[in-house]
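User: Hi! I'm working on a homework problem where we have to compare a predicted structure to a textbook description. Could you give me the structure for the chain below?
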Amino acid sequence: MRTKGEVLGDLRGMLRDVFAAKAAGESYGRLARAHGYVDGYMRALLEVELVSKAELLDVVAAERARASGPAIRAVEPTPAGETVAA
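Assistant: Happy to help. Predicted structure tokens:
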């Protein structure tokens, strides 16, 4: 039987491949199929209770940040009474 670390390593590799294909402009059909494989893999990991939902979210967020940079950036608060045009 494979260890949790090995399984999560496989998931990281699958996610890297999906994000790289998306960045390279891969066709919709291929991306959809790759997303389906990753989704099914994650669902199986959840169903056998090998990982928690929070662990999966951490792995996906880390791989997405590696591929595309951080999802958000730090924003400095505006001083009281100052308005910001949107």
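For your comparison, note the following. The radius of gyration is 18 Å. The mean pLDDT is 89. Good luck with the assignment!
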